Amino acid sequence: MSDYLLEISHVSKYFQGLVAINDLSMKVKKGQIYGIIGPNGAGKTTLFNCITGIYRPEIGQILWKGKDIKGSHPHKIAELGILRTFQTIRLFSEMSVAENIMSGRHIKSKQRWYNGVIPTPAYYKDEKENWEKVGELMDFFHLSEYATTPAGDLSYGIQRRIEMARALAAEPELLILDEPAAGLNENETLELTQTIRKIQAMGVTIMMIEHDMEMVMSLCEYITVINFGAKISEGVPSFVQDDPVVIEAYIGSDEDDDDE
Amino acid sequence: MMNKTSLIAIALLVFMGFFPLFVDSAWLAVGTTFLVFAVVALSQDIILGRAGVFHMGHAVFFGLGAYTTAILNVNFGLPILATWAPAVLIPMLVAFIMVAPIIHLRGDYLLVATIGFNIIFIQVLENDVFGLTGGPNGLFGIDVVRLFGYDFSSQTHMYYMAFILLGLTLLIMRNLDKSKFGRAMFYIHKDEIAAQSMGINVRYFKLYAFILGAGIAGAAGSMFSVQYSAVSPEAFNVTQSIMFFTIVLVGGSASLPGVLIGTFIMFVLPEMFREFETARYLVFGIAMILTMILRPRGIWPVRFGNIPDFLKKGVK
Asked: What is the CA radius of gyration of chain A?
């Protein structure tokens, strides 16, 4: 087995002839916080969608612990331990916060097919264990007071925390965060930075797209910079920060950061 | 533990349990019909209200259950009790064969496909395939339930059998809602991409909803055929499917009281205003329109947040 948890090797993705990702390669080590930055429309979210199985890249390989997972169903990829959050928050907004987080326990739950109709002692045990785990996560993310509140009724910052709690509930090996700080105020961003460090300390590898440069530079151990779907630079934060190619890409583009 | 909803539920169950003591046989028949159709509507709700699949062919499964009992009893002389298991299993099997190839279709496309199945189903029944279905007239002379020398043939017997069936259905749905399976259906319904990304196999759980819903509808169909001692194709046509679909949306998707209210409005209210009986579709039509405008989530919308008490401690 290779030293890398995730290896993206010469991946290209086209949309009706348009190149969204162009021959992109990167390697993520276990335990790392890996940053992906680049101007809007550079293909960052497309890359995450390729990793998580929402898109199938036409060319290249996506190796998870040495095995190609390109084109697998999203649920298969989640089962492998790759969980994500979304740039545009995707919660089950009518459902309560606790129920939202419980969805992360789905792949860990050992309920059998007949437990949908008939409860068994093993079912009760499983159900209890999973709800307890949800309780722990609500404590960790300071969400306990909203346990029964519909997720959609809560503020943006809280919704981002619910999404992370939901992904963490699945006990991922790789957590993929798509602009976790978007829409957060300064305090919330600071809190998020600490939370991400704590998650890393649990042994979770993290990949993130983020426009908040301060946060990226302080958190990430390694960064890849993408522009027009292709890698223009990579390295440790101090290198990337001073790379003239990167500076040009950023100055040459509108830094207003909302949509891909 | 005792909240308002469970009190209402218990009061309703007690009322329905004693209902046959107060009414004449005509009303008893109405009551039985309500119970049977409530079971069908609830099973439609598993597919439509929980998994969120736009399924407008539910009368197929209801009809398969009814015809299975009718054919096995009338053509092959099997006692009704022996037809129960096939009347549940055959709709489940057909649901799997019929729906597995189309389950990936998006809402509106799948809706059209399920209507197509319903039309084919009626064609098959009317054309008396293999000489089993009795053609447009259907089959009659269906036996009653017999057990240990007793005949369960009175209206009261029918009522209580349907009552037990509804009770079982409600119990199943309660269990479903509190399991990984029911939750997975809700997650898929609310956001399919997010659900997939949490590791939920969308195809599997949609099929699960269909097969479970088909089995329950089949049981109701079997009961229906015994109640009327006859079956005919028009009881299972697309109009019936539209009715079940509408009951769920008007009553409240995924809401047990909502679906019961929807069934009540559709099948009991018209009986209470007999002189307006021809206007029953007019009344329901207006109710449908008004509900969708004023209460788009149904008369009694579903309430989420059904979580264990120990998690509610921090709630202010």
From this structure: 19
- Evaluate whether B222 touches B232 at the Cβ level (below 8 Å): no
Q: What angle do CA B98, B103, B104 make, to 5 degrees?
A: 145
* Residue-wise pLDDT tens digits, B92-120: 999 999 999 999 998 899 999 999 999 99
Q: Above pLDDT 70, what percent of chain B?
A: 97
Q: What is the pLDDT of residues A63-103, one digit of tens each?
A: 999 999 998 999 999 999 999 999 999 999 999 999 999 99
| A94, A135, A170: residue with CB nearest B199 | A170
Note whether B51 and B204 are within 8 A (CB).
no
pTM: 0.92
Nearest to A250 by CA among A223, A221, A227, A220: A227
Compute the distance between CA of residue B111 and CA of residue B258 in angstroms, rounded to an integer: 22
Torsion angle of alpha carbons B185, B188, B190, B195, nearest 10°? 120
A54, A94, A117 member nearest B304 (Cβ): A94
Q: Taking a C-beta distance cutoff of 8 angstroms, is the pair B55, B245 a contact?
A: yes
Q: What is the largest CA-CA distance in chain A?
A: 64
What domains, with CATH codes, occur in chain A? 1-42+59-72+221-245 (3.40.50.300), 82-172 (3.40.50.300)
**Residue A2 confidence (pLDDT):** 63
The answer to whether the CB of B62 falls within 8 A of the CB of B216 is: no
Partner A contacted by B296 (CB < 8 A): no
- Residue A82 near residue A174 (C-beta atoms within 8 A): yes
Q: B203 φ, ψ to 5°?
A: -60, -45
**Contacting residues of B for A148, CB less than 8 Å apart:** 305, 307, 312, 315
B197: nearest CB among A78, A93, A117: A78
DSSP A65-130: TTEE-TT--HHHHHHHTEEE--SS----TTSBHHHHHHGGGGGG----GGGGTS--HHHHHHHHHH
Mean pLDDT of chain B: 90
CB–CB contact A94 B312 (8 Å): no
Q: Which of B99, B122, B103 lies closest to B214 in space, CA to CA?
A: B99
Quick one: pLDDT band at residue A253, thresholds 50, 70, 90? low
pLDDT one-digit tens code per residue, B31-67 = 999 999 999 999 999 999 999 999 999 999 999 999 9
Q: Are B264 and B34 in contact (CB under 8 A)?
A: yes
What does the DSSP 8-state code read for residue B198? T
Separation in Å, CA of A185 to nearest CA in chain B = 25
CB pair distance less than 8 Å for A106 and B307: no
